[in-house]
Amino acid sequence: MQPIEFHDCWAILSKNSERADAEPVWPKDSWDALAGAGILGWSISPKYDGLGLDTIAILEGYERLASACLTTCFLLSQREAAVRRIADMSSDSLRSGLLPPLARGESFATVGLSQLTTSRQHGAPALRARTTSDGFVLDGTVPWVTGAARADCFLVGAVVENDQQVLVIVPASSAGVAVGPPFDLMALKGSLTAEIRLHDVHVARHWLLAGPAEKVLTTRRGGAGGLETSCLALGLAGAAIDYLANESAARSELRDSATHLEDERMRLRGVLHSLAHQGGDADALTALRTQANDLVLRATQAALMTAKGAGFLRDHPAQRWARQALFFLVWSCPRPTVMATLAQLASGQNEP
Fold first, then answer.
1. How far is it, in rounded angstroms, from Cα 88 to Cα 133?
2. Spatial separation of the C-alpha atoms in residues 12 and 236, rounded to whole Å
């Protein structure tokens, strides 16, 4: 694949962003651009053909890319969730087999973990695993899998005996794996998010990453909906804020609003990078996520109001930004974030 520069990659994502949002079609040109710019190797060690960038550099890049196309970055985030756990939890033989083609863009991995965290938590486990002498047999449903139809493997969580959990890799070619049609989402349709069903799917112990354990989803960056989700919210907010700032050049009455939103974006970016560098507890992650959600909602609505009626037309980016911002209210939202956001919405006040 012909190498390309980051700014050219950004331009390709931006050019294709409306189609990626509106059509349930894999955003091939945008994904190929990520590979061509080396972005798919950012988080992977050079030992496995990646670039091994530091966390701050990765977050800066992801924020910029999210301002171009949130759909493509959503796909990237789910692939990164798989990459991170493979790198942290798997054996060297698994890392050697899976990470190099992921770094080169030759394969695609995604995760199906919401059934352990935020989806279908009020009934029987959606996905169960029966222990066998040489591995596990999986039965059930993974309700939310992004890029499902394009995946070469799925990293999924299941409940085993005694209500403990396991984290396993399921090759997409495994007998008994059925990928459903893409959901008719209100935004991000090109993410090809779908449900997958597993019926008597045998997974050899070789593919086990973690567990059995009571809570298998413990990662170095705060679990589901951690820093990457807040980072992408800031990226989408940035697209709307930049639009508002550009409009304020000719409409001085917009200047104070644009400046205030930009100052808040810069403050939250500082918090994000500080947490990435120094670490933080669950309360700090929840506070950042809540504030990032609030900012992206307000910034995109401000852009829509600024665009007036033209912004409500399908060909204007303001309507897309406003719709996409609503996704952050449901994407990997653990209960503390939900409760904090509900309290904020009910009070009409923005917590600092």
1. 25
2. 16
Contact between residue 157 and residue 167 where contact means Cβ atoms under 8 Å apart: yes
Q: Which two tokens stand for residue 204?
A: 């050899």
Residue at which a domain ends, from 189, 213, 237: 213
Please give the residue range of the domain that contains residue 249. Answer: 227-347
pTM comes to: 0.92
Question: Residue 23's domain is classified under what CATH number?
Answer: 1.10.540.10
DSSP string of 15-76? HTHHHHHHSSS--HHHHHHHHHTTGGGTTS-GGGTS----HHHHHHHHHHHHHH-HHHHHHH
Stretch 46-54: mean pLDDT, rounded?
96
**218 falls within a domain:** no
pLDDT class for 3, splitting at 50, 70, 90? confident
Asked whether the beta carbons of 120 and 112 are under 8 A apart, the reply is no
Question: What phi, psi does 50 have (nearest 5°)?
Answer: -100, -170
DSSP symbol at 302? H
280 vs 259: which has the higher pLDDT: 259
